[in-house]
Amino acid sequence: MSGSQRSNAIRSVDTGRDPVVLETTTPETVEGRQDESAAPSQVQAPAKAKKRRSPILPVVALALLAGAAWYGYDWWTEGRFMVSTDDAYIGGDIAIISPKVGGYVEKVNVTNNQIVKAGDPLVTLDNGDYRIAAEQAEAQLKSQHLTLDRVDAQIKGAEASLLQAKAQKQATVASLDLAQLSYNRASGLQAQKVVSIADLDSAKMQLEQAQANVSAADANIAAAEAQIAVLKAQRAEAEAAIRSAELALEKARRDLGFTILKAPYDGVVGNLAVQTGDLVSAGKRLAALVPVSDLYIDANFKETQIAHLAPGSKVNIHIDAFDTEPLVGTVTSIAPASGAVFSMLPAENATGNFTKVVQRVPVRISLPKEALDTGKLRAGLSVVVDVDTRTAPAEHALAAK
Question: What's an example GO cellular component term for this entry (predicted)?
């Protein structure tokens, strides 16, 4: 082994304990130590560079301060008077097109998304049975009118009979008076023995016959009056039958008219669910008609926001579907109760645990006419509304306070 090899060798000393390894000094270790001693001087240069301040931080701080000042000014001048919500939607009084009578569909006159005018036919049902029913009701009405005419003729005949009976009574009364006079005369003469008893009996018989004729005349008058009363009752029945026939005819004509389903107002047809040949029953939903010029907004404000809301306040309306300038609407009414009160299953807080939930109150907002006239608005679109409480009419503003 050479001298250099011995200087680089690792010596092991046996001391009776664990062997101790001794590392000899080499040129490489000396260079490493020199590099470590030189490292601190090289690190000092970046430390001096960190002492320089960046201009970005003051600019950011100034921008934040300016933004906070602008926000505070905007809130003080505008924001504190605005009440906003995004729980708002465009609504409309959608008409459900349903037949009032059943039958087979003869023709569907419209398609989905078609614009229609008030009175336009939408669906036509087969009207054969209803047309026959209307004609039958009309014939029944004519028959009742004929019955009434016949009863009127009978009443006129009975009234004539009554007049005749009264005339006959007058004649019998005159005969009775004459018979009474003859009997009185014969009775006086018989007392004087001027006439015979046979003549007196004959006068008495004529008197009794005249009395019987008067009684018969009275009976004829009573019978004629009773007949007239019966006929008048029949006439009242005929009039009632005519009225019933008129109502039956009116119903038959209405049912016949109901075979044509017409648009109740201007709008757009949607959700069409019928085709030619379908058998439909009364009340079945065939289509929906959505108005395009009579839309509104229902906005649900939190109960903590409605203190200063009042009808007449101006509203800025942002429609999510259109990237346009906000529309200006008007608060028309505020619901008399929260939405939870009108729900199908209102909350019952008297039982069980109670968790307070902020309630929402529906507020109706009108849309400007120029926006409705475009025909672009659709029921169900989401909107964001900002109510300016400063614009409420004076009387409503005082009431809100």
Answer: macrolide transmembrane transporter complex
